[in-house]
């Protein structure tokens, strides 16, 4: 098969928010831009498809934001969620630049709406995309296409030629055939099998995401238990481009063993279950493992704040599975989710349906019920409903499981994103291990998120990182033309 | 992947309703689309979905397809979330479910054929009627309509057809109103009616949340909304033409024909043009519509209604042009036959979408005001 040669000004690898912001920004500066996206068109955009909002600083309320969110407050929030695992210069730079993003993103055709439904707590800080992340992506793609940005779908970059800190060209291959339909549950993504391409460009923007869909890579940090992880986004986030950059001498940043893991419905498909498989009900009941034993204080904190600890906790349990149990009085207290809860008229029957030992589960529930102190239940505050005398107490929202039918949700760790990335400077240029900045290589989005978000998570911050550094990267890349 | 769900009723009577209930459960755990239209906020007020709820949501959907384009789980995703198509199917089924009299239900099965047949029969009926009533030569004389059919007979015949249409659609509406539980909120208040009139008049929800609606590809446009406006307001203008002419005749004693700049003529000409351009545009967009968004089974019904409207507008204009020629008699038969058939078949075709959608918008306005859902009656008949 002959090799196709392509020459362009700016090569953008990846197809999500960061990639498209970079492509649009570079194109608006007059550069010829080629976007190479590994996923087929429907699955384009990586994790952006599953996002819903972005967090930008703003000095006053707007049509869709209920009040001001100052740079200082944003910085305080970031410091708190990352526990200091952030590069202050980059983070403050990003926060300052986030202010103009609301306007800029709107100018690219993206529309916002006021926060509604179960997300009112974010109404002041976060801007919600009308129609969600895929709507946002669709708008960016329409704008990019109108501007003349070229997009290749189903095309995986297979090699990067980098000399010193200078990008020369990329090798890529289109994937062909039905194996590419991302129903492909096995997660090998698209095996590149089509015609090889050689893409020369004056600058490179790497915006190809993390490696959360690469189970083998996850195993390097988590061991065999990663086999039981579910991936919340597409099977295409395999980190190949990140690996190529690190192998070419780019300096890494972020803990290579860490990822953002929440507890999601164990019945979810291995990939791309998205938002609808999450479960917001830990605080309403108890959580037991395979041995029918409790293993953590379910009433430790409000659900959104402790969203990410339960993935990690479940990952540490045998077979990486756990069961959230509650009774009929809690059935409609939380956001509904995709799968129905497993239902039984007694705890013993529920144990049978969950394949747990009935006497062990009955004992755990009885001990818990016996330890519940009287109180006034209110899940919107730290109430006084708690247990007393258990090895692992439930410190708030503890109510007896006594009103049949009883319900259970099986949960497994659901991986959202990884923290390992490429170190960048405020120009979004990647840094080489030699200590110099690369001359024409930029990175944006999840592939460099670890610079700002070294740990933890705050709603909408991934999109801020993607948009801000995407635009900076695109503008920087266009200067090489 | 999708076991039976204890959260929603297992008494749903059709596959379409069950699929709609599954989707509403999926959508209710996502809610990303809540800013797009009325369907999703109405859905969020509910935890479970009875048939009445689903028929309400289905008729609230304007099929703009914004949610299909924006959904991360639409086909080819394994979750196969296709809200516009599923609600279109439930909607089409609901037209038959609420029809009066129920014996007419089979008319929806092969609606295109049925309506074409009724239309052809009534046109033929008028031609034959005129020919038998008079000397057949009167058909080819041109000039006055009333030589062919006295005004009182015409008014009586069409008045009766119109009243029958009102009765049948009214009783269908009553069944729908009851089934969606609108009475539980006493939804027919002046303010909810006014809100629904504004929403319907502007087609507020045929807009993908502000960008336009999607049809053949991922680029939203306002085409369907514009064509629908032309059709709807064209229809109203034609109706206004007939009504003013009736008032002229009976109140002022001014018999037809009227001059070019008279109200009946102006309304009729503008309305007729709307009824030609609008249905042609709608049929064109329908033909190009992405197959994922179409309810294949309802194609005949949509085509038949558009054709009837087009035929009404075109034959009306034709009649105006041909009235002094020998072709007048045939043109008049054609026009009267089509209008007669249009009225008779209105309760049994796509026309009812406007009635049920308006009722759904009224309930939606009321639910929005009260922030609680209607409760469909338990005892469904």
UniProtKB/TrEMBL annotation, chain A:
Region of interest called Disordered, as start-end residue ranges on this chain: 173-193
Keyword Oxidoreductase belongs to the record: yes
Keyword annotations: FAD, Flavoprotein, Oxidoreductase
Signal peptide: none
Pfam families: FAD_binding_2
Cofactor annotation: FAD
Domain of life according to the entry: Bacteria
InterPro entries noted in UniProt: CobZ, FAD-dep_OxRdtase_2_FAD-bd, FAD-oxidoreductase_2, FAD/NAD-bd_sf, Succ_DH/fumarate_Rdtase_cat_sf
Domain spans labelled FAD-dependent oxidoreductase 2 FAD-binding: 9-454
Entries under NCBIfam families matching the protein: CobZ_N-term, PRK08274.1
PANTHER family noted in UniProt: FAD-DEPENDENT OXIDOREDUCTASE 2 FAD BINDING DOMAIN-CONTAINING PROTEIN (PTHR43400:SF7), FUMARATE REDUCTASE (PTHR43400)
This protein's name: FAD-dependent tricarballylate dehydrogenase TcuA
TrEMBL record, chain B:
Signal peptide positions (record): none
Transmembrane parts of this sequence: 114-133, 153-173, 230-251, 263-282, 303-322, 328-348
Keywords: Membrane, Transmembrane, Transmembrane helix
Domain of life per record: Bacteria
SUPFAM superfamilies: Respiratory nitrate reductase 1 gamma chain
InterPro entries: Citrate_utilization_prot_B, NarG-like_sf
Annotated NCBIfam families: CitB
The protein's name in its UniProt record: Tricarballylate utilization 4Fe-4S protein TcuB
Organism: Roseibium aestuarii
Lineage: Bacteria, Pseudomonadati, Pseudomonadota, Alphaproteobacteria, Hyphomicrobiales
Gene assigned in the entry: tcuB
